Amino acid sequence: MSDERVPWLRFFATAAKGTEVALRDELREKRFRKVRADRGGVHFEGPIEEGYRACIELSIAVRVLLLLTEMDAPSGEALYEGVREVDFGPFLHPRLTLAVRASCKDSRLTHTQFIAQKTKDAIVDQLRDRLGARPSVDLEDPDVVLSVHLVRDRASLYVDLSGESLHRRGYRTHVEEAPLKETLAAAILRLSGWDRKSPLLDPMCGSGTIAIEAALLAHDVAPGLLRPRHGFERWASHDAGAARRTAELRDAARARIRKEGPLVMGSDVSATALETARRNARATGMNVRFLKRDVRDIEPLRPPGFVVTNPPYGERLEGGPELYEGMAEAFTTRMRWHTVVILAGTPAILRAMRMRPAKEITVFNGPIECRLLTYSMQGD
Ligand SMILES: C[S@@+](CC[C@H](N)C(=O)[O-])C[C@H]1O[C@@H](n2cnc3c(N)ncnc32)[C@H](O)[C@@H]1O
Prior knowledge:
Layout: E1 9-14, H1 20-29, E2 33-38, E3 41-46, H2 48-57, E4 63-72, H3 76-84, E5 97-105, H4 112-131, E6 136-137, E7 144-151, E8 154-160, H5 182-191, E9 200-202, H6 209-218, H7 240-255, E10 264-268, H8 271-284, E11 289-292, E12 306-309, H9 321-334, E13 339-344, H10 347-353, E14 359-365, E15 368-376
Parallel strand pairs: 5-6, 5-7, 9-10, 9-12, 10-11, 12-13
Antiparallel strand pairs: 1-3, 1-4, 2-3, 4-8, 7-8, 13-15, 14-15
Helix pairs in contact: 2-7, 3-4, 5-6, 9-10
């Protein structure tokens, strides 16, 4: 088939606020095309297989969306009419279930539930008129997820290729308190400037997310390989041909896995956290060393490398000036020549460090505004 006949599609990969640039760089490194960062995510383009590949290969993307249509939607009727013009046959038939997510900003339509309802009505009415039966709604485990975003009365309708959020890699069967999402851990590692060759340690590793994501990155394990299936594999059009092309993408990703990698370690004071971290790492097949140690007793890596960590903060976890002072003292006196990268959820950590970070980036851990602080520890 000539290239002109392959439909050229527009995708949007979503990312946690503040990590869009990291996702843009990841998409470029993995040779996606027409990559452009925006608020909340990154645009890219290509044939449908590029959407499949994004779900399999990207570590920072939270969702991968395919743009179906854009329209002016100043009213519920306009939205309904615009959505009905899309052909939903490739995604849905009456035996499949659907869910619609909606968001809006600076628009006349202000109720997300109403927007989702109108969109769903247009979809099911179209299918009922054409096929005599309609798909039903399932908010728990839908086969097909659609999302509609309204900004200044302009609606964009997407179908979600990922299905469940991509941070659910499948390896984290247990978590400790305040775990980082896997996608955010991957973003932090990229933003840290880690070269994926130097040794790396998370000295407050909790469930082990940063260390496990580091090992996956260093060995070039595509995170989507860990998931049994993605949303697009439940679409009506996912026939034997599409399944074969998906299998080929998985095989190509598997063939790239590197056997050798740098030393990756995690430590924590909590024995139960370490048990969880070990179990999670085992589920990925990655070799991560975990040991019980107080961050204040941290030992330098040989050769010096990267410390990337997310200290406790907030009411539920035992953060506080004493821990931060001790941690800062240990990092500055024991970790010479290392790069220390801290995801700080409180300004108290920056104060305790008593030195200017080489880099400071704002990233959001869910609703919590954090600073990602990078320190280059000097020698004597
Ligand atoms: C915010 S959690 C880390 C969460 C982790 N990034 C994850 O994804 O699960 C902070 C961790 O610091 C650990 N911690 C608290 N005080 C510590 C200390 N003095 N030394 C080492 N670890 C400590 C806690 O046990 C907790 O697991």
